[in-house]
């Protein structure tokens, strides 16, 4: 391609880069016209990613079909609808289940999702006019440099000359991280004593071959990374399920799993919505976010990004979130199960709106007689607080009972306030995006309640537990390296420890801009880009431009995705939920097209 033409470089060709390309194609007719005619020159788009465009690394088609999506096929779309608050046009397209001809409630395997993403990418490229050309570079981007007011240079691995770009968009997705101090110490100890330590990683990329059959393995982390690990070390090694029974192949290690909570994420809800939906947002919507942002230092960004001291999430934001989730819960309880309440909804709603803190607790206690019908977010977050078992065997039985209870509840519509809380969580997340970096606690809490595994995965956990392949450790799991082994324990079973020669950290890496293994982002930070207190790349909320440490947006660099403080609630957007990621993609696409058109017009003048 000619380097004289205007050019856009997109670093990262996974779902976010593909979504940006779809929005560019949608907005081209309005903002760029039929490029190549009327005196307006077209432009080049360079897509940089060592993995196939569309799916990228995480969703690539070349991975085990035993690994599933964590969302139902009907809840995965790459296309906008009229609920998205954006300036660009809606271009509808099929959800995953429509495209793949799957049942809506199916949890598709990840290779199938990769094929869907590849199709979306190819459709977006085909929708561009002839004057806009796209080229994929299957390489890693190493760094970006160049003057603020001039062309940028994007250096690629194995290439001596850079790509020249008038604009650069970093949509690099999930990142690897350098080991933190604890992980480094554990890794060093393992090397010195002939042990095995697998640090946080994307499980599909981990080399699990050294985990020997029949040997105990300590696993720290009970979320979705653990589910993948469990699958690959059981079915992935030839085991099979027959109903509620697991038949081992003999090649499985024995997994001892624990975490901070000591329990797996809550099961996906196994029924659909019927009847009136709670009118959300109610207590935490755009007006409340505006008020938070209007406060002095009303952004959680660090002072180096112009945000002052920032908001305190627990003090300033959480009370509003808690009230919003409670409203969703009780609206559904009073609407669908009025026989389990003592007063009329209109009376409850009026009093709830005026109440705060302990007043809300008193109101709920008087209006909802059964404690199991009351929403207790603290108890949900710490299910094993104060729970003690006298033996390791008693813990196994107790945790199986906990999982069985969770499965029953999450598949029983008589507990439909749980689904209302799920809708509340989605609504809250859509508002929190505007606040930027709010810390890591909320994201973990959201995932634990709203983004847990499909029900069948928890049933598999139960079968593996009964077969003796999976053993529970408990809450606040401790890990020490001493006497030539790893040891794990938990206050849930006082005095009991488990020894093993292998330790797996079953969680995703938590990279900061300073600790990421991505050389490009580290260089960007060293060059003056701002980071939030949590180590996220600070971007302009309006269009995703990268901020410097004075809070000034870079005119030619944008960033989208989980490495930024404008990250969304998950990898994919549910249809008809207003998708913040769609809004962000559209804003960035329109800003890029306006810039490139102005550049072309100046060149043609």
Notes on the protein architecture:
This is Adenylate cyclase. By secondary structure, this protein is an alpha/beta fold. The chain folds into three domains: 7-177 and 511-604, FAD/NAD(P)-binding domain (3-Layer(bba) Sandwich), CATH 3.50.50; 191-265 and 453-505, FAD/NAD(P)-binding domain, CATH 3.50.50.60; 286-381 and 411-450, no CATH class. The chain is built from 16 helices and 19 strands. It has helices at 15-31, 96-100, 110-127, 181-193, 224-233, 286-294, 313-336, 345-354, 358-367, 377-381, 392-410, 417-432, 441-450, 455-466, 519-526, 580-604, and strands at 7-11, 44-48, 133-137, 141-145, 152-156, 163-165, 167-170, 196-198, 216-220, 240-242, 245-247, 254-258, 470-474, 478-482, 485-489, 497-500, 502-505, 545-547, 553-559. The strands form five sheets. A six-stranded mixed sheet has the order 3-2-1-7-19-18, with helices on one face. A five-stranded parallel sheet has the order 8-17-9-12-13. Strand 10 (240-242) and strand 11 form a beta hairpin. Helix 1 packs parallel to helix 3. The longest helix has 25 residues, at 580-604. It is globular, with a radius of gyration of 25 Å. Mean pLDDT is 93; it is low at 301-308.
Helix/sheet category: alpha/beta
CATH class of the largest domain: Alpha Beta
Q: What overall geometry do the principal axes of the alpha carbons give? A: globular
Measured distance between first and last alpha carbons: 23 Å
CATH topology of the largest domain: FAD/NAD(P)-binding domain
Compute the average pLDDT.
Answer: 93
User: Low-confidence parts, pLDDT < 50 over ≥5 residues?
Assistant: 301-308
Main pleated sheet: 6 strands, mixed
Q: How do the strands line up in the largest sheet?
A: 3-2-1-7-19-18
Beta strands, count? 19
The number of helical segments is 16
As a percent range, the share of helical residues equals: 25-40%
As a percent range, the share of strand residues is: 5-15%
Q: How many domain modules?
A: 3
The CATH architecture classification of the largest domain is: 3-Layer(bba) Sandwich
CATH 4th-level superfamily of the largest domain: FAD/NAD(P)-binding domain
């Amino acid at each position: 391609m000619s380097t004289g033409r205007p050019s856009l470089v997109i670093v990262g060709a996974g779902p976010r880069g593909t979504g940006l390309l779809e929005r560019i194609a949608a907005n081209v007719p309005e903002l760029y016209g039929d490029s190549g005619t009327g005196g307006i020159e077209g432009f080049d788009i360079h897509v940089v990613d060592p993995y196939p465009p569309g799916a990228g690394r995480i969703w690539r088609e070349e991975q085990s079909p035993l690994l599933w999506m964590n969302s139902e096929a009907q809840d995965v779309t790459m296309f906008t609808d009229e609920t998205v608050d954006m300036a660009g046009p809606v271009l509808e397209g099929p959800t995953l289940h429509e495209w793949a001809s799957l049942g809506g409630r199916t949890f598709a395997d990840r290779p199938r999702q990769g094929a869907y993403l590849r199709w979306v990418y190819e459709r977006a490229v085909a929708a561009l006019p002839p004057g806009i050309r796209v080229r994929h570079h299957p390489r890693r981007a190493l760094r970006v440099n160049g003057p603020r007011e001039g062309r940028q240079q994007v250096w690629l691995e194995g290439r001596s000359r850079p790509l020249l770009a008038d604009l650069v968009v970093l949509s690099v997705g999930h990142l690897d991280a350098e080991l933190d101090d604890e992980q480094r110490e554990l890794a060093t100890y393992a090397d010195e004593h002939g042990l095995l330590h697998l640090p946080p990683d994307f499980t599909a990329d981990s080399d699990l071959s050294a985990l020997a059959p029949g040997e105990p393995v300590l696993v720290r982390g009970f979320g979705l990374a653990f589910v993948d690990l469990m699958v690959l070390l059981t079915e992935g090694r030839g085991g099979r399920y027959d109903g509620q029974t697991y038949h081992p192949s003999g090649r499985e290690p024995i997994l001892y799993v624990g975490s901070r909570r000591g329990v797996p994420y809550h099961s996906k809800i196994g029924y659909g919505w019927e009847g009136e939906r709670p009118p959300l947002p109610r207590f935490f919507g755009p007006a409340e976010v505006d008020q938070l942002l209007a406060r002095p230092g009303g952004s959680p960004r660090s002072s180096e990004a112009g945000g002052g001291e920032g908001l305190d999430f627990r003090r300033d934001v959480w009370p509003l979130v808690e009230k919003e989730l409670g409203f969703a819960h009780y609206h559904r309880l009073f609407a669908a199960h009025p026989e389990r309440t003592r007063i009329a909804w209109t009376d409850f709603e009026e009093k709830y709106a005026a109440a705060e803190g302990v007043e809300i607790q008193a109101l709920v206690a008087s209006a909802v007689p059964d404690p199991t019908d009351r929403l207790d977010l603290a108890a949900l977050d710490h299910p094993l607080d104060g729970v003690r078992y006298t033996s390791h065997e008693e813990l196994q039985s107790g945790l199986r009972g906990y999982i069985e209870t969770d499965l029953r509840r999450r598949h029983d519509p008589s507990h439909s306030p749980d689904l209302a809380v799920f809708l509340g969580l989605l609504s809250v997340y859509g508002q929190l995006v505007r606040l930027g970096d709010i810390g890591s606690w909320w994201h973990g809490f959201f995932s634990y309640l709203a983004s847990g595994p499909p029900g069948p995965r928890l049933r598999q956990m139960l079968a593996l537990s009964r077969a003796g392949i999976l053993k529970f450790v408990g809450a606040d799991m401790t890990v020490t390296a001493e006497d030539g082994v790893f040891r794990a324990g938990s206050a849930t079973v006082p005095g009991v420890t488990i020894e093993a020669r292998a330790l797996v950290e079953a969680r995703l890496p938590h990279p900061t801009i300073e600790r990421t293994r991505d050389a490009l982002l580290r260089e960007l930070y060293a060059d003056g880009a701002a980071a939030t207190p949590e180590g996220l790349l600070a971007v302009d909320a309006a269009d995703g431009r990268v901020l410097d440490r004075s809070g000034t947006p870079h005119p030619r660099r944008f960033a989208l995705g989980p490495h930024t403080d404008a990250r969304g609630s998950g990898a994919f957007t549910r249809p008809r939920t207003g998708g913040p990621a769609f809004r962000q993609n559209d804003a960035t696409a329109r800003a890029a097209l306006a810039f490139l058109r102005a550049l072309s017009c100046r060149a043609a003048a």
